[in-house]
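From: lab user (bench 3)
To: helpdesk
Subject: output format question, protein + pyridoxal-5'-phosphate

Hello, I'm new to running complex predictions and I'm not sure whether the block I got back is the full result or only part of it. Here's what I submitted:
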Amino acid sequence: MLNKVLPERISRLEELANNLWVSWHPQGRAVFRAINYPLWRTSGHNPVRELYDTPSERLNELVNDSSFLTLYDIAIATFDRDMINGHCWFVNKHGGKLAGPVAYFSAEFAFHNSLPIYAGGLGVLAGDIVKEASDIGLPMSAIGLMYPQGYFHQRFSAEGWQEEIYEQLDFDRSPITPCPWPQGCGPLIQIQFGDRPLYLGVWLVKVGRINVYLLDTNVEMNSPADRQLSARLYSADREQRLQQEIVLGIGGVRALRTLGIEPSVWHGNEGHTSFMMLERVREEIEKGSSYVKALEHVRSTTVFTTHTPVPAGTDVFPDNLMDKYFRGFWSQMGIDRSTFLKLGQHNGAQDSDFNMTILALKLARHINGVSKIHGKVSRKMWHIIWPDLFEDDVPITYVTNGVHLPTWMDSEMYRLVDKHTGISLVENQDSPKLCEQIASIPDEQLWGCHQDLKRKLFHVIQERVQQRWASGTGDAEQAIAMGALLDSDALTIGFVRRFVEYKRPTLLFHDIERLKKIVGDKWRPIQIIFAGKSHPADFPSKHLLHKVYSMALDRDFQGRIAFVEDYDIHIAHYLVQGVDVWLNTPHRLEEASGTSGMKAGMNGVPNLSVAAGWWDEGYNGQNGWLIGERLSESSLPKDDDERDATELYRLIEQEIAPLYYQRDNNDVPQGWVKMMKESIKSIVPAFSTKRAVKEYTEKMYLPAVQVTVK
Ligand SMILES: *Cc1c(COP(=O)(O)O)cnc(C)c1O
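Helpdesk reply: Thanks, we reran it on our side. This is the complete output you should expect:
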């Protein structure tokens, strides 16, 4: 929260800095870039930190700087225009259909690196959805947890093992404020925590028009252990995990009530949020409903999105923990223990653990997976909940994920599109017709734009290597493993994602000798950049990470394999925009959707991927490459490392490298640029969050309002 007196003429910088709107609007970023460029960069593009650290003399200077004032006035005018709901899709098309906002619950949100309260794709999706809700004027209140230490920063030890470093968030320098309460309410809310009360503070994050409320247990009235509870994301400790989910679900409902917000639809993003549904059942019963009626009311107004394609991925809690925290709760619901526990078990299963996804499947009527395949996989996986239905009739549909275009597409690139089509891509991103016109961009300009982005990426990598070297915390070998020898002219493949076994991060090394030949080709060299974190408790994945690190040091690879430390959304921007090819090789049915490939694809970085998640829908034969077969409805193929790796090598050797290195007289690879254009024009309209949030609105939210029983 910025707390600083600013000169009158530019006093609204405070409001801008405290709203993440700035992060996805070039007009906003331009202002802060101009205030103090070195601080803008060292702050990681965090306007609050930048302003905080900028001396008053500089601020006073700006008041007399007419070019700065022009930037400021433009940003303020654009901001004010955007804060008004009037001209938006939702208002034009569905205005008046929602009496209250959509309450959107998620355990993580990735808005910006100044707020590290996410671990991966789930958070990125949630963050992008909130930004898009703001853009299209969909009323929404979002609920999450404040993790003052967030997720860890990754570093390599001298031996190439992952080390985890936690940093305390500096609240004074972050875009977050204590929640303003209605008269007579707050500043804390209270929930029952087993046998004791727990107090929760609430923080407010402004994301354009949308308010995000983050619950925090670190308040004086709680015991030291409880104060630590929300410190970090995804503890490996079961009980802590359960406690966090109680805070999110039950505390979240209480927070909205205390704020006087009356949602008309409740959306749980993944099973971590399911206690929200339980708390609402309890409320209905408290108001006088019968158990059956209360269930019916909650179900009809609840949307649930499942993200896990494998049963092992769902959150489960043993009975003894459920007893400890919910003993008082089921009596308030007017039900007995066994009826209560059954809500989290599949029918017929006795004494199994309490499953948060099953709870949501039973308490939400509007349920979706996150890609077409994932919808199918989910229907199969959860058929046990509806044993009387045919598998195809299991009531789980899908809304394929999308990514927020103004966040992830480089602004120079979308401005290039605007310049040649005469229409704003950001405004018309889900119009396939506009995207057709992308063909009219001159090849050399699109290629030039990509080259600039690639240089930027390499610059950022070199800068990190240099800092590490200069600070004396890394040796020469480490510098090489981290990319010191990369060459910005070579074809560069990115393998960038959370390190988990199912994503097969070492598939590329299946045949090391063959890969050495490919990488070391004298005329058509190839580089591979890796990045990604292992969960601190996932030891098999840490070994995979170590293996990749060791490969990067193998001299036969000539320094052409690099591992960039500390993957987060900041470096993700440079990576998805700056490599030449985006590689993905997960086990086909274990990737729910994936979104990083969408980010790359809309920046003209073609995907090279197996038919998993979104790529099975996205691949059209011209916008990238498919490793192996497309999935067919009837026979879902088995993954075979040998076959997949062989096909991957073949594609690189015979299709990708030749296309990339075939240049015209101006050194432009025309065939490649054609593929870049295909990638942009097919991926922008179909895989933007604009498409996804419109689909959520019409397919999930509006039906949840209309069938409400009184
Ligand atoms: C987009 C993104 C993800 C999700 O990527 P997938 O591997 O495609 O699921 C994860 N982490 C970060 C930092 C991202 O930006």
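A quick orientation on your result: The longest helix spans residues 443-470. Let us know if anything else is unclear.
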